[in-house]
Amino acid sequence: MELEDIRREYSKGGLRRKDLRSDPIEQFNFWLQQAIEAKLLDPTAMTVATVDDSGQPYQRIVLLKHCDQDGFVFYTNLGSRKAQHIEGNAKVSLHFPWHNLERQVNVLGVAEKLSAAENFKYFTSRPKESQLAAIASKQSSRISARGILEGKFLELKQKFAQGEIPVPSFWGGYRIKPTSIEFWQGGENRLHDRFLYSQAEGRWDIDRLAP
User: Fold this and answer.
1) What is its EC number (predicted)?
2) Which of 63, 112, 118, 192 has a Cα at 20 to 30 A from 73?
3) Does residue 191 have a known ligand-binding role?
4) What pLDDT shows up at residue 51?
5) Residue from 186, 8, 17 nearest 103 by CA
């Protein structure tokens, strides 16, 4: 089968203006809960898009760890490529692909670093192996072999076998404060439903977009 022949119909139901919450964060959390209840694989997975200093976009998948009226939170190595990009350009795009529900959400916003207290609270809640991995991996740096990474992990595992693991200074989180959020619901005959929430003078305006 040729790639251009691969297609399917979207038929899980439309999205109407009357069905939307007035607040996009409430609408997002409602959809996220439905994705969790539908037992989607990795419902909190999101693509994070950043831009380097030459204007080249990059994308990678990370996990959403918190969402409230202040924004969308994820954690990373602060020396990683994404962190370096954010340092130069804090504008970020997030994308949630919930294929089985024929839905997607796109978020545009500005990234800001979390406080040391917020980083500590989340880091200490992680499994010990995840804490060790955060220290062992100098994210985005070049390594000659996987064995180097595994050796560092085992070394740290022995070192902290009995004690608490300190929060590394090069690890932390970002909060993406949204400026717009778009909700997309697949529709029959490619007549998809799209609604865009945009910030305007302290309120959210809602517009329907053509598919």
Assistant:
1) 1.4.3.5
2) 192
3) yes
4) 98
5) 186
156 is in an annotated binding site: no
Q: Is 165 annotated as a binding residue?
A: no
Question: What is the per-residue pLDDT for 177?
Answer: 98
Domain 11-119+173-208, classified CATH 1.20.272.10, yes or no: no
Predicted local distance difference test score (pLDDT) of residue 153: 79
The pTM assigned to this predicted structure is 0.90
Q: List the domain boundaries for the chain.
A: 11-119+173-208
Structure tokens at 54: 């030459």
- Residue 82: closest CA among 108, 74, 71: 74
Catalytic residue set = 190
Q: What is the mean pLDDT of each run of 10 residues along the chain (211 residues)?
A: 87 91 98 98 98 98 98 97 98 98 98 97 92 81 79 80 88 98 95 96 95 95
